[in-house]
Amino acid sequence: MSSFSTKHLLGIKNITAEDIELIFQTADNFKEVINRPIKKVPSLRDITIANIFFENSTRTRLSFELAEKRLSADVVNFSAGSSSVKKGETLLDTVNNILAMKVDMVVIRHSGVGVPHFLSRKIDANIVNAGDGTHEHPTQALLDSFSIREKLGAVGGKKVVLIGDILHSRVAMSNIFALQKQGAEVMVCGPSTLIPKYIDKLGVKVEHNLRKALQWCDVANVLRIQLERQNIQYFPSEREYSLYYGVNKELLDSLDKEIVVMHPGPINRGLELSSDVADSEHSIILDQVENGVAVRMAVLYLLAQQR
Predict the structure, then answer these.
(1) Domain identity same for 226 and 262
(2) Which of 68, 233, 262, 300 has the fewest CB atoms within 10 Å, counting from its CB?
């Protein structure tokens, strides 16, 4: 088996199509592991991993922690809310103090763009980016692509539309890079206020009409409206957003084909997605959650081989 091309997972931009395929092949094996009665393997038994989260997270944090424990790693959880960061300690001091306890790998989420990249140049541990500001969220994009591959057989040649808050979404950026590296066509759809001005430079299509976007695609990845990152009003009201860009059953039934619906979570039900779509046969949202553990196991395992 070939090896991973990099010591860290900082972003999809920094890895190759071969790396992505290697992660997926490894995740296939781990998916078998997590579906059997004994769900643990001793692959990372001598590795200590610190989960350092400076932003709130439920799904990503639990998924990483579960992946680490399934691989038999020793796990240290660090939450900025209850740490010395509150007393003015710098990011680098915080991380160095954790590393002084002989930590091998760091999974970090931070509101600052580029923080994982900064740490990778300063410390010896393997770094996994669990989301940096509005920049990238590589493991989410990998589990999204893995879920498409599982459902449709391949990612290459498929048409995928990302719907909603593209401007504030690190999931959107990582997905665009991952899908393009695998040969998929990518479109973004949403109100013009939530589409970045530079987006066409990335080689993606832009569509403001939701029905046209859904008619075009094989897969619709509906993104969360990130109200916590919005310091100005980007659309008149939630009701109006839902009217023009909410995906509901009536809209899906009016298409002349079946499409796959995804969402990285957490869902604002009734805003981006109606419940009858989120819980329908179109949706692979719970598959994404399950696949997240297998994909993160694969990433951690492959990075540990680099040590």
Answers:
(1) yes
(2) 233
Residue labelled with tokens 């939701």:
210
For tokens 């109606």, the residue is 274
Work out the number of other CB atoms within 10 angstroms of the CB of residue 69.
17
Q: Give the bridge partners for 75, in sequence order.
A: 49
ω into 37 cis (within 30 of 0): no
Contact 219, 162 (CB under 8 A): no
pLDDT digits (tens, 9 = 90+) for 155-196: 999 999 999 999 988 999 999 999 999 999 999 999 999 999
Residue 7 maps to a domain: no
Contact 32, 196 (CB under 8 A): no
Closest CA to 130 of 9, 307, 297, 294: 9
**What six digits make up the tokens of 252?**
């899906």
Residue 247, domain member (yes or no): yes
User: How many angstroms separate the CA atoms of 104 and 48, rounded?
Assistant: 5
Q: Are the C-beta atoms of residues 123 and 106 closer than 8 Å to each other?
A: yes
* Spatial CB neighbours of 231, under 8 Å, sequence gap ≥ 6: none
253 found inside a domain = yes
Q: Can you tell me the distance from the alpha carbon of 114 to that of 181, in angstroms, rounded to the nearest whole number?
A: 21
Residue 1 lies in a domain: no
Residue among 306, 304, 296 nearest 45 (CA): 304
How close are the terminal C-alpha atoms of the chain, in Å? 17
> Do 37 and 148 belong to one domain?
no
